Amino acid sequence: MASQLASLDYQPLANPKTTDENADAQHESSNRRTSWMSESGPAATQEITNHEEGSPKSPCEQARSLSPELISFGQQKDLVGPTRTSSFHWFSKLSTLEDWWFFELLGVLGAAGALIGITVVLWKYDNEPQPQWDGISLNSLVSWLSTVAKACVLMPVTKGLSQLKWVWFAERDRPLADIAVFDAASRGLVGSAELLWHLRGRHFAVLGSVAVILSLGFDPFTQNLIQYYAKSVPDMDQVARLANASTYETVGPGIGVYYVDPVLKSNVYSALFNTDPTAAWATPQYFCSSGNCNWGPVSTFAYCPQCSDVSTSLNYSCPVGSDSFRKNCTVSLPDSGYSLWYRQMSPSFSNGVVMTMGPNTAKSNATSLTYNSIRAVVNDSGLVDSTGDNVVSSNLSSNTTFIGTECAIVPCVRSFNASVVNGTYREQDVGTWYGSNESISTWMASHVDPPWGLEHGVRPGQTFGIRDGWVVKTLLDYYLRQMLRANVTVSADALAFDVAARPLGSTFPWYDAADVAQAIFYANFTADTCDTPGDKFACAVINVAKAVSKAIRDAPYVANGTSGADMAVGQTMVTVTYVRVRWGWLALPVLVWVLGVVTWVGTAWKTRRAKIQTWRSSPLPLLFLYREQDSQREREDAAAYGPSDEGYERRAEDIRARLSVKRDGARLVDS
C-alpha cells in the first residue's frame, strides 16, 4: 500500500521549461554547489574531480559517490552541506537546540516565570490598596502575564502532541488517518477534543489534549483571581475633631444674679419640645470632612440621669363622703413632699391634679438634683368626647393607674467611643464615673475625678468638674430646679398647666415651667426615642441631662472656636479600593502548567525510548519517508542526509516541486 501511495503522489511530470532555460538553471546551481564543495575537504574534492566527465557533481551525487557504510552521519552532513551556507548555518544551530528540546524548556520556564510573577504581584497587593500605576492597571498586568504564561505553556504541549504522532506510529501499525487526528490536536481545542475521544484515554497523548482544552479557561481564571472591595481607612491628611470638655465655667448675662447660659437653655428647651435623640440638641459639635470618622476613647464632664420607677411606693387615700359619687382621693409619694388629688364629681367626670413634678429638696445637694413626679395614666388628647365632657376628666377614677418616678441629675464623667458613619453621629459607652474626691482641690465647685487612664481617654493629671460656684448655682438652683416644678390640673371642661408656688423668700429668676409641663404631658415618646416610653417624666429628664451635657461639651468651642477649644482628635476615614486575591482560581493555570511539563518530559522520554527523531510538526519527514521507497537514488539520498529534521530540510532545498491538479487527481511533482 505504501508503494502505491508513493507512486500516486510523486510521479514526476515533464519539465515545462525550455532546454536553454533548464540548462542555465542547472549550470547556475552546479556552480553554487561546486563553490560549496571546495570548502568540504580534500577527500571530498578528490572524489569530485575523479568524475568521468570532469564536471562538478550535485551534493546528492557527491554523497552517492561515497559509500555510506564507510562514513559517519556527521561526515555525511559535511559532504552534502546546505545550498545556502549562511541560512543553513543558523538552521543547523536551531535544529541542534530543537533536538535537545530547548524551546520546550524555554516554554516551561517562561510559563513558570509568568505564573510566579502573577503570584508575587498578587501576594504583594493582597488586602492592600489598589495600586495606582501610570499607563497600566493591576488587571492589565495580570492579563499580560497570563497571556505570556498561556503561550509559553502551550509550546511544549503542542510540540509534544506533534511529536507523539511519530511515537504513536513507532509503537505498532496504526491507521494512517491518525496522523490527521494528532495534527489537529496540536492546533486547537476541537482537535484536542477529537484526539481525546479517539484515544479514549488510553495513551499518554491525552494529557496534552486535556492541557489544550483546559487552557481555554486560563485567562478567565487568572482574571477571577482579583476581587476589589471598598474599605474605610484613616486619611492622615485630614483631622477629625470632636467637642469635649473636662470643666465647665460658662454663665449667662446678669448683674449680681446671673442667668443660665443662653446656649444651654436653648438646648434644654429643644430637648423637651423635640424628643428625637438624634436631633442637634443631642449631638455635640464635630468636624468630619468625609462623613466617616472615628474617635476614642474620649472622656468628658457631663450630667448623667438616674431614674427609677417608684410606683409601688405610692400611697392611695380615697375616703367616701356623704355622697358616694363625691370621692376626694389623694395619691402621695412618701419622703418627697409631692402628691396629687382628684375629686370624682360624677361617674362621667372628675376634677383634680393629673400630674405633679418638682425637685426633692431632701435628696438634692449643692451639686446634684433629685426630682419626683406622680402622673395619672389617662387619655391626654385634651379633647372632648361626644357628650362634651373632657376626655381626661372622664378617665380619672378609682380605676386609674398612677406612675411614680424619681430621677436624679448628677455630675459624672463619661468615657465613650464616638463615630460618624455616613454623616450620622454615634456614641458607644465605655464607662461612667459618678464618684468624687473632695481632697483633690478646694477651688473646684464640683469635681469628679475617675481613676482612669488613657484606656478611657483620661490624660495624666486631668481634672473634671465645674470651676465656679456661680455656674453651679445658675445651672442647678436658678434653672433646673425651677424649670421642672409644675402641676397639671383638670376640670370638666379644661386642662391647666400651673407653675408650682415659688419657695418663700426666693429671689432667683423664674423660668417658664408651665410650658415645660405642657411639653412633658403631651410628649410622644416611643421605644426608639426612650427606653421607658410609658414614663414621660423619666424620658424628659433623660433628655434634659443629655442636652445639658451637650452644652457643656460645646462651651469651649462656642467661646473660642477650634483653635482655643481642646477638642478630641480622631481619624477621618476615607473609602479606598482594596485588592482581595482569591487564590483558588490559580489552580487551573497551575494544573495546565503541570500537564505541560508532564507532556514535555513524557514525550522526550518516549521519543528516546522509541529511538526516533524529533520531527514534531514538520511535514517533510512524512513526504520523504514514502519517497525513499521509490528508487535507489532516493534511498541513497536518505542514507547521505540522514533522518533528522535538518537532513530533510537540506534535501527539500534541492528539490523543486509544484502541485499538479488534473481530472484524475492532484499530485505534488518534481519540476
TrEMBL record:
Keywords: Membrane, Transmembrane, Transmembrane helix. Residues 1-62 are annotated as: Disordered. Coiled coil: none annotated. It holds the Pfam family DUF3176. InterPro entries: DUF3176 (IPR021514). The keyword Amino-acid biosynthesis does not apply. The chain crosses the membrane at residues 100-123, 583-605. Residues 18-31 have a biased composition (Basic and acidic residues). This is Uncharacterized protein. It comes from Lasiodiplodia hormozganensis.
